[in-house]
Amino acid sequence: xxxxxxxxxxxxxxxxxxxxxxxxxxxxxxxxxxxxxxxxxxxxxxxxxxxxxxxxxxxxxxxxxxxxxxxxxxxxxxxxxxxxxxxxxxxxxxxxxxxxxxxxxxxxxxxxxxxxxxxxxxxxxxxxxxxxxxxxxxxxxxxxxxxxxxxxxxxxxxxxxxxxxxxxxxxxxxxxxxxxxxxxxxxxxxxxxxxxxxxxxxxxxxx
Length: 207
Hints:
Number of domains: 2
Helix content: 25-40%
Largest sheet: 4 strands, antiparallel
């Protein structure tokens, strides 16, 4: 039976104000997408992540689809968006960095404090996924609370933490088994080499 999947309280939210805030926030990223249909899906993706608090496409679709028979078609739209050949993940990353630039410029701090966080993403039981590495994981702890080797990807994020809201200024997954990977120390060096302070009132620039 087709019913509204979300609470009636959703309909009482200030929708126009929320839409305007979302449009302003996503502006640097949306400008990097080549057409209006892709920009609309990007908005839905972000709404789905916020509504479901999950990165899973089906959960995201459930958060934005109002009728039961529209959940799977919405999830397929999200999958097509992720695999669309007209843009790459680097375009989305540059949009993410553009959001960080806008936030820093808005608050104009005298200095920036950046937290650099190397971490490992686990992909348990994965063997044939592109570029999958063997990584060490300690969270969540294993049966004996020890660190363990598992399939996954090393990753690194750099977050500016001295603003009213933290912003991501760098994010990258890499793989121990690909030709372009040298070492994790080299990834940190690359991040530092790409970090340029223009003025205290503007954000970070990345090559």
